[in-house]
Amino acid sequence: MSPQSLGHRVIATLFALAVLIRPTSAQSPASTGGDLAQAASSGGDLAEAASSGGDLAEAASTGGDLAEAASAHLREYAGGPLSWSAWSPAAFDRAEEEGKLVFVSIGYHACPWCRRMDEESFRDEALARRLEENFVCIKVDRLERPDIDLAFRTYARVTNNPSGWPLNVWLTPAGHPVSVGSYFPAEAPAGAGTSTFQKVLDHITTQNRRFPDYVQEQAARDLEKLRESVRRPPLSDLQPQEGDPVEELYIEASSAFDPVHGGFDNAVKFPRPELMEALAAIATGLPEGNFRREQITKMLDRTLDGMLAGAVLDPLDGGLYRYVHDPAWRTPQFEKMLIDQARFARAVAAAYPLTRDEAHAAAARKALAFAESTLRAPDGTYHTSLADDTFGSGGERTHGRSIWTSEQLAGVLEGGELDAFQAAFGVLPGGNCTSAGTLGGFPVGANILLGAEPGARSPEPGSPLATAVGKVLASRPLPPVDDSMITGCNALLVSAYARLGACLGDPALVSRGGEIASQLTRVTLGEDGGSLSHGRGNGKPFGPAFSDDYIFLIRALIDLRRAAGEAGGEALQLAARLQAHLDERFFSDEIGLYHLTPIGEIDALPFELWLNSDGDQPSSNGLAALNLLDLAELRGDAAALARAQTLVRAMSPELQTQPVTCPSAIIATHRLEALGAKP
């Protein structure tokens, strides 16, 4: 959700949580087969697992050092007036030596709100001086360090604050959070009652100067209380599951469904691919003519039709934007993530046997084609994202190739080409935008290109429309690409190819998925054949994998086996090896879940980190349960079936209270019910 819609809130008081994640010095693990547990220490060492290419402390003194960082997001912040540090022991040591608080800003390369806050505040000379006088400033890329990101998002949620990006956290030199917030404007809109970034800095600085001991002591007092509030109950204490979470998900989804435009949200609307997959799984097991099957088919059909009629699926370039700011799918958040292309294609593959709509299948193919044309790296793996905007020679924001005025188009096209283009993409002389834009950057008379008209998304070759599309695409450069490669995101792309290929009966898609998987494992699989690296950027490795990297790759390999039949036996063998490694290093027998980080590092974290809900990525524990069910079926593995039951039972608190947020786990629950194997 956008920071704007969350009201730019910030903690009103200095409610401190002693989060033990202060980095301590240690040698970083190797890029393949490295043991994250080796980086853990009693001081709560997270920094040393950040880079397998060397000690982050070596790159932690000034913003200029970020110029060579592995992360594209960190490199963006080099060279400005503010001296940023990477997350490292040296940064916290410097804060302690200088008697300063630590300011941590977490974001990612494609995030438009991150870029806006950088432009407005971090590159402002006066604000930069104010920050450097009072804080040691650290920049974190959430894609490179999902553990740090999830820890502080958990803190934000526990303290009822925004947990979107940019996520800004103030810490003591001991690593204890003092305050948290998301995007803060440099100047508050008239009458908005919004805290500006400068006001927030003044408040935190003043309180820390007046009551430094209080901040430290309060952090220690509140530590256990807040940690206990999110502590997972032991598996042995969970009561038998009550009710039917599969039924509840159907009821909640039906209630939230928008019958006009499709989708399951209101003002800010997300695609919800895993929810579509879960609904499709429920319907697929029902006979033709069944009322529930028909209702689910209508919901899926209307949602995908609505997305195609709007702009969330870019009708010009192809590819799925992250979400929209209106019910009709017309005002996107102009950023494209690799993971979202994969998730959309998987959702279409799940829905297609019910809807049988070739336009949906074509849109999924186009999303994958976007990944191929724009995000594919020279080595055959895939970059993580395309940013939301670029700038013209005069500094104007262009939102890539998605926003046009009639006058701008007339400067590129003429005659029949212009007429065909404007008719196909809903371009109006006075503009078709009903809002000022997600970042206030839409020009007067702006048009967002829509895909409602027949032929808009697939113009006939050689037609005036096809010629016009080519000229429009050639007239503007693409926004910048994040050159980071994340193992889990690439694995989901493999899964998308395998599933869509199997669904459409297209062996070429399945074969392409196999090629990507082969290259991905070549560059991420350790010499031991069971460990993975998290990814890399700027030619440098990020470090050992997290549990979701393993789970998503296991899912991809199983999907390849399903799509290729017995020919996929080698993929299944590798999936089993990775599963054994995952079980050994990430599974908690006490709570029955896979942690994001290895079990040996749990004590180094402020909260135990697991992912049960489907949000900006699929639920890793939900997919892990599905992986285990498939391994049990394909390999006759009774232990895998038992562990799948354990996982679903461990997720019962979420499944009973908020099943619509856990559709991946609901699919696993549904499959267990069909097997007669209750959790």
Enumerate how many helices there are, as a single number.
23
Beta percentage is 5-15%
Spatial separation of the terminal alpha carbons: 33 Å
The quaternary organization reads as single chain
Low-confidence stretches: 1-64, 391-395
Mean pLDDT: 85
Largest sheet: 5 strands, mixed
Report what the structure shows.
- It contains 23 helices and 15 strands.
- The strands form 5 sheets. A 5-stranded mixed sheet has the order 1-3-2-4-5, with helices on both faces. The protein has a 3-stranded antiparallel sheet with strand order 6-7-10. Strands 11-12-13 form a 3-stranded antiparallel sheet.
- It is α+β, with helices and mostly antiparallel strands.
- The protein has helices at residues 72-76, 89-98, 112-122, 125-134, 146-158, 197-210, 212-230, 245-256, 273-284, 291-309, 338-355, 358-375, 406-410, 415-424, 464-475, 487-504, 507-524, 547-564, 569-586, 620-635, 638-650, 652-657, 663-675; strands at residues 84-86, 101-107, 135-141, 167-171, 177-181, 336-337, 385-386, 403-404, 447-448, 481-482, 485-486, 533-537, 540-544, 587-588, 593-594.
- The protein is globular.
- Helix 6 crosses helix 7 (212-230), helix 18 (547-564) packs across helix 20 (620-635) and helix 20 runs antiparallel to helix 21.
